[in-house]
Amino acid sequence: MRASILRHGMNAWPPFLFAGIHITALSDDFRHARVELRRRWYNRNYVGTHFGGSLFAMTDPFWMLLTMRALGRDYHVWDQAAEIRFLKPGRGTVHARFDLDDGVLDAIRAATADGTKHLHWFETPVVDDAGETVAAVRKQVYVRRKPAARDGSAGA
């Protein structure tokens, strides 16, 4: 699936659509994504700042998705764990960037070459328009090379 089609589909996906989450960029090679969340009446908490669940949801699928697409069908890729720290009240529009570099992919490939699992932590700051960090999100992604891929044949 092309990145542009996936981006439009995810923007219409009810958990994102109804939370006000919008994917503003998804690169064709699935190495970079940018997501924003505008504060609306329906995604504010009791004190008028961004609802914490929406701040977390805006970061939820991206590390798994980017890693899965970059490694290809020869790997199992899943979200394993996550944590969020709220650092300051989120007001206005907030953003998150995801940049998957070759060094991380090379390390994952090396760690899983013999078929063992690898757990990799990714860190994502959620920042406001002034560039200040509103929340710090950590996502742990599980990666294991599929058995059929180790003998040189394509994975299922």
Structural notes for this entry:
By secondary structure, the protein is an alpha+beta fold. The chain has a single domain (3-150), classed as Hotdog Thioesterase (Thiol Ester Dehydrase, Chain A, Roll). 29% of the residues lie in helices and 36% in strands. It contains six helices and six strands. It has helices at 3-12, 14-17, 52-57, 62-71, 102-112, 147-150; strands at residues 21-26, 32-38, 75-86, 93-99, 118-128, 133-145. Strands 1-2-4-5-6-3 form a six-stranded antiparallel sheet. A hairpin with a 5-residue loop joins strand 1 (21-26) and strand 2 (32-38). It is globular and about 50 Å long. The two termini are 17 Å apart. 24% of the residues are buried. The model has no long low-confidence stretch (mean pLDDT 93).
Give me the Rg, rounded: 17 Å
Low-confidence stretches: none
Biggest β-sheet description: 6 strands, antiparallel
CATH H-tier superfamily: Hotdog Thioesterase
Number of spatially distinct domains: 1
Number of E-state strands: 6
Overall, the morphology is globular
Distance between the termini: 17 Å
Structural class: alpha+beta
The spatial strand order of the largest sheet comes to: 1-2-4-5-6-3
Output the CATH class name. Answer: Alpha Beta
Strand fraction = 35-45%
* CATH fold title: Thiol Ester Dehydrase, Chain A
Individual helix count: 6
Q: What is the helix/strand order?
A: HHEEHHEEHEEH
Helix content: 25-40%
The pLDDT mean sits at 93
